[in-house]
Amino acid sequence: MQRLDNVWLHCLHDHKNSVMAVQWNKNGNWLLTGSRDHVIKLYDVRMMREVQTFRGQALAWHPVHERLSVSGGGDGALGYWLVNNDRELALLEQAHDMAIWTLEWHPLGHILATG
User: Fold this and answer.
1) Fold topology of 19-114
2) Tens of pLDDT along the chain (115 residues)?
3) CA–CA distance, 101 with 69 (Å, rounded to integer)
4) Taking the model in full, what pTM does it have?
């Protein structure tokens, strides 16, 4: 992580492959990272610590419910997650025939676009 004035704040080295997606949650306390290792990691940036790991590489925070995120995997599965809950809230195993590479919520949070 680095500031706009190009000062490095912290470097996270937990993935085993290239990180392809990063996203802050609404309150700025949590950061999701998605990698080609098919793992999504959740960091609490207040402590600079990994707090959860999910399967997948595509990710998106819900725009209204700040603890809710969604993950998309190379197998076409779509998972819904809550911060500090190690089990998926819901899993759609065949949401896509192939890999999910991108996810985006409608600003009101009632529709999820996947690709």
Assistant:
1) Thrombin, subunit H (2.40.10)
2) 545 566 555 566 676 667 788 889 998 999 998 888 888 889 898 988 999 988 888 999 999 999 999 999 889 999 999 998 878 899 988 899 899 999 999 999 999 999 9
3) 15
4) 0.82
